[in-house]
Design brief:
This protein is an alpha+beta fold and 93 residues long. Helices cover 24% and strands 37% of the residues. The chain has one domain. The chain contains two helices and five strands, in the order H-E-E-E-E-H-E. A hairpin with a 2-residue loop joins strand 2 and strand 3. It starts with 9 loop residues before the first helix and ends with a strand.
Amino acid sequence: MKGKKTTLTDASRKIYEILLKNNINKVACGIIIQVKGRKDHKISIKIKQENGCTNLSVTGKYYKQELRIYDEEIEKISQLLKKENDENLRILE
């Protein structure tokens, strides 16, 4: 994460900690967008490959935030999140 004043939503913080635990450090956090309250409490992660980075769109109960990862391939990140998956995490590709 670059800088010292980056805010993470609760859902994004969980994903960020999984990435840090696996030595993935080049992560940039995007703006936080409010969404209507969802009935399920699962965290949804949409994984997309963009030009030069992998974009994770993380949606929690009330907020959505994008995390951009600059040093790893989409397949490695996808496998990592599936390995760390629990019942409260939904991965969309």
